[in-house]
């Protein structure tokens, strides 16, 4: 059955161009079709779940940064309302804040202006996050140094780096917060005198940092550096191709001076870049901005899709993202950076506040219906009896399901 897209292409393209074997077909059209087709990969439900965004968390995190930039961490609801469009939100800002009582509090001044600020628990969480960030500054510096060591000229443009700073856990003020503490490692230069040409340059090469994740894992195992396949054993053909790729040529360290373009070196660079990120994933489009700096191929997506044992490519939210498979166990990170743990705590606090808001709203609606006589008010003893009957019913259902599973295993001919 023809899709809408294929029908549209038939209207837009001459009939002869729709025949792939027609002599008038341009080679560029073949490349275009092939490029579109090669963006697809078999879906991994666990990794797709790991890529799912919590839009509410993103908005509340942005509101948190708004308060952190405000005097005394207090701002007017009116000012937040003006920024609602930039936050991709509609409705009233006050209603949004009231949905998260565990995160934000509101109060009115004498002149009637409504302000909002952090709740006590949220303020404590913000302070804890700042303490964690301060304690992880040496790790941030090492991460930044390794990024510069991966680059061709040992320097990176600040504007480009800012696109990926959150992936690597760098704060907004990392240039004035981290760089001055390590003058023997970093230097800020501007060779052309333009604002967008500011670069961070590596001052000193550290051999101790020039060890990739693959090399470190091999040293622990006492083996030669090799990539590992994170696909299940049932992927026989894919794993066979991967073993052939692993055995064909030796591993090339992304920190080596061998800049001759090769598939194995490019895979090593992307593998190391993803290993340095907090969530072991990155936008492919943003990675392509660093083709020259990191020596990446012109068609990075082709390279990634040829190695499904190492990388997972997803187009969730119409954003092409590459994930390092070995960084996840199911949908959870194998190792969580302290900053990731803090982000999870914010999500838990936010969810707790939302549940409390929904509970209060449900009780208020029930009370309104009772006052209007729409709901019959029953004695508490009757409600308790109904709860007990419901619990027994559920317990019996669980027992029936357990018996079904037991007999299925007992009499199944192909266990």
UniProtKB/TrEMBL annotation:
One Pfam match: PORR
Residue ranges of domain PORR in the record: 42-354
GO MF annotation terms: RNA binding
Name of this chain's protein: Protein WHAT'S THIS FACTOR 1, chloroplastic
Organism: Cocos nucifera
């Amino acid at each position: 059955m023809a899709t809408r897209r294929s029908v549209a292409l038939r209207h837009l393209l001459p009939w002869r161009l729709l025949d792939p074997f027609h002599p008038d077909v341009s080679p560029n059209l073949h490349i275009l079709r092939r490029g579109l087709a090669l963006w697809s990969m078999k879906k991994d439900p666990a990794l797709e779940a790991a890529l799912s965004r919590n839009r509410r968390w993103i908005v509340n995190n942005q509101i948190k940064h708004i308060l952190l930039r405000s005097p005394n961490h207090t701002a007017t609801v009116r000012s937040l309302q003006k920024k609602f469009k930039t936050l991709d939100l509609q409705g009233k800002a006050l209603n949004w804040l009231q949905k998260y009582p565990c995160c934000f509090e509101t109060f009115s001044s004498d002149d009637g202006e409504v302000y909002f600020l952090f709740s006590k628990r949220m303020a404590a969480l913000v302070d804890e996050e700042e303490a964690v960030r301060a304690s992880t500054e040496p790790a941030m510096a090492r991460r930044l140094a390794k990024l510069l060591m991966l680059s061709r000229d040992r320097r990176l443009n600040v504007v480009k780096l800012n696109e990926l700073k959150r992936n690597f856990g760098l704060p907004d003020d990392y240039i004035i917060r981290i760089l001055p503490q390590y003058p023997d490692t970093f230097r800020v230069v501007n060779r052309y005198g333009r604002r967008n040409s500011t670069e961070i340059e590596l001052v000193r090469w550290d051999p101790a940092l020039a060890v990739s994740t693959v090399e470190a894992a091999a040293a622990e195992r006492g083996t030669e550096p090799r990539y590992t396949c994170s696909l299940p054993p049932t992927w026989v053909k894919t794993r066979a191709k991967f073993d052939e790729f692993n055995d064909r040529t030796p591993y090339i360290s992304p920190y080596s001076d061998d800049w001759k373009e090769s598939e194995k070196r490019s895979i090593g660079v992307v593998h190391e870049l993803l290993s340095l990120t907090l969530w072991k994933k990155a936008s492919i489009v943003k990675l392509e901005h660093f083709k020259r700096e990191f020596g990446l191929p012109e068609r990075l997506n082709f390279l990634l899709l040829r190695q499904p044992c190492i990388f997972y490519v997803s187009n969730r939210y119409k954003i092409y993202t590459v994930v390092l498979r070995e960084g996840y166990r199911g949908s959870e990170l194998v190792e969580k950076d302290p900053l990731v743990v803090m982000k999870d705590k914010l999500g838990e606090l936010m969810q707790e506040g939302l549940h409390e808001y929904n509970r209060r709203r449900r009780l208020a609606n029930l009370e309104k219906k009772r006052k209007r006589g729409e709901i019959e008010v029953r004695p508490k003893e009757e409600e308790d009896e109904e709860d007990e009957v419901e619990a027994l019913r559920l317990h019996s259902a669980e027992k029936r399901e357990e018996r079904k599973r037991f007999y299925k295993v007992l009499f199944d001919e192909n266990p």
